[in-house]
Design brief:
Blueprint lengths: L19 H18 L2 E2 L5 E3 H8 L4 H5 L3 E4 L2 E5 L4 H10 L9 E10 L11 E10 L4 H18 L5 E6 L3 H15 L8 H9 L10 H8 L10 H16 L5 E2 L11 E8 L8 E7 L3 H4 L7 E7 H11 L9 E7 L2 H16 L4 E3 L6 H10 L2 E7 L1 H6 L2 E5 L4 E5 L1 H9 L2
Parallel strand pairs: 1-5, 7-8, 12-13, 12-14
Antiparallel strand pairs: 2-4, 3-4, 5-6, 6-11, 7-9, 9-10, 10-11, 14-15, 15-16
Helix pairs in contact: 1-5, 2-4, 5-9
This protein binds one RNA strand of 77 nucleotides through helix 3, strand 6, strand 10, strand 11 and helix 11.
Length: 420
Amino acid sequence: MAKAKYTTHIGMVDILPGEVEKWRALEAIIHEEAAKFNFEEIRTPILEQTELIVRGVGQLTDIVSKEIFAFKKGDSHYVLRPELTAPVVRSYVQHHLNQRGGSQKLYYIGPMFRAEKPQKGRQRQFHQFGVEIMGSNDPVADVECIAFMMRIYQRIGIENFELKVNSVGDPESREAYKTALRDYLGPNLDKLSEVSQKRFEKNPMRILDSKEAEDQEFIKQAPVIRDFLNEETEEHFENVLAYLDDLSISYTEDPYLVRGMDYYTRTAFELTSPDLGSQDALAGGGRYDLLVEEIGGPSTPAVGFAAGMERLLIACEELDIKLAEPKSVDVYFVSLGDEARKWALTHLPKAREAGISTTMDYMGRSMKAQMKDANRENADYAVIVGSNELAEGKFTLRNMRESEEMSLSFDQIIEKLASR
RNA sequence: GAGCUCGUAGCUCAGUCGGUUAGAGCGCCAGGUUGUGGCCCUGGAGGCCGUGGGUUCAAUUCCCAUCGGGCUCCCCA
């Protein structure tokens, strides 16, 4: 075999037959559960305006500052979407979905793009599913969102994970907290890691997320945001936690959980798994009460999450969870000679019309090779057609699992297979 | 973007302390069984040893670069 001249770009992968079945099974579960939760699917373009993502996700985030695929054509600035919250909000505003009344419960599945160095559980094109609940600031919305997320993993059978929850505060609480954090960290600023020092002014909360060894002892004793929440936000958070308890969803309160997008307010959560290696986040999300307005829409509270589908599939692999059955076909038509081959070709459609999946040899091979192919294709039955069968109008139906054969007319075969 | 590591057949991997035709298992094709798969036996196809350059009489083997994978950091799904 010649070496492939053209290959996928780095960090972009083909999903091949054998693998695709798992994806379809996963997607089916997501669609089914979304229907049970009364979420409606939304599909938005792969390309968005660069300005939307910069404003929406945040100029200073890693995603925008170094992970974006962007290009210009004419006067338009295009970006391959790195996440879907900002685009969904854009769509909500553009099409005035608030006018549909009530809160909007939306979900999505699709590819995202980030120009990162790939490693296990991290690709440049990857897939997420997620939910956005627009228009409600009720803690019930936060918790339904989390409940949907947990339900997907529960249905698949992934139970080895940790749900971390925090409140990152509203703007008022957050300013008070940032001041307190700077007061606390300031005296030791020179002892912090380089990255943390850089974040001190603009985004001191991200220091809490640091994994640098030298930062750890300071983080351990840092003030906790919860002590700075104003009454309303504290009450919201208490309700979220209480509802989670009511639903028996176990969680860890992590006062130092901070998330990568600028738009989060109040509730923030993250689902991590020890089965994933260093890229251990299965899913993450939170509330973004200011984003709709930021993008030019009416002041609208909202909450959502996004989950990585590749990571979910990696976890399945680690846990030996089989999402899809091996493929099979109901019946394989084995034909001997031109007459029989023509008969097979013209009778395939009749079987298919009766709801039977069927195929035949396309390479004019020997009977043995055809039987071998039927076996490889995991056929339940083979129908063997030769000159004897054509003359008698009775065909050999072989049960490939039991290795038993009987002689039947074509109609009898269809009847038998269709009524299985 | 930084560090480490790996890159031999479709797949999983041996091997060459630089030296004539580069191996195994699985898979693929064919035959053993001219009308019967899965097991077994026999044979066959398939590799410029990731790519480019350098050192050398000679490179798949050593050196450099590059591309791609894995791990870590950063960050996130």
